[in-house]
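Severity: low
Component: inverse-folding endpoint
Summary: output formatting inconsistent between runs
Steps to reproduce: submit the following structure tokens with default settings.
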């Protein structure tokens, strides 16, 4: 299980790097149009693969790692799991990504907000934020890789990339 967590943490760091590079690239006039074409043409598959990997990761951590999700983890799942279905249907029906972008954007913003709150709950000193209703379970840092990667940070990274891809892929 520690190997899986480390691989997921490495993947999270790579997602963070990809997000920063994507944002920087679309603000470079010389590369903007080619970056937008690349992102828009692959958006459905990016969203589907990342969301499917996220769902698989949460289930593996829960059932193989025997780490039961807390209340905030469940809320993040509530916002993540529909994205798999939405993106899969879009791929099957060959729907343009701009048709699903608003749904992915809305789910990702709310899911990202929950993930950010939980990450801060785990990283800041106890009592810094409004406490969680789950008797402190949400504030327990069960995964801590590279000095900053927690399970909520993993979710936040995926949600942030979804926000970026969906925002770039929206109708003009």
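Observed output (run 2 of 3):
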């Amino acid at each position: 299980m520690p190997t899986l967590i480390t691989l997921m943490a490495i993947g999270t760091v790579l997602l963070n790097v990809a997000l920063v590079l994507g944002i920087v690239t679309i603000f470079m006039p010389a590369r903007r149009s080619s970056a937008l074409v690349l992102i828009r043409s692959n958006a459905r598959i990016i969203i589907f693969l990342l969301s499917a990997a996220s769902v698989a990761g949460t289930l593996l951590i829960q059932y193989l790692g025997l780490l039961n999700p807390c209340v905030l983890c469940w809320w993040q799942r509530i916002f993540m799991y529909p994205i798999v279905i939405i993106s899969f249907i879009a791929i099957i029906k060959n729907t343009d990504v701009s048709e699903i972008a608003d749904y992915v954007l809305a789910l990702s913003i709310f899911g990202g907000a929950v993930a950010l709150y939980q990450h801060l709950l785990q990283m800041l000193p106890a009592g810094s934020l409004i406490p969680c209703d789950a008797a402190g379970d949400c504030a327990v840092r069960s995964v801590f890789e590279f000095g900053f990667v927690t399970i909520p940070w993993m979710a936040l990274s995926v949600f942030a990339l979804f926000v970026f891809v969906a925002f770039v892929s929206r109708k003009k």
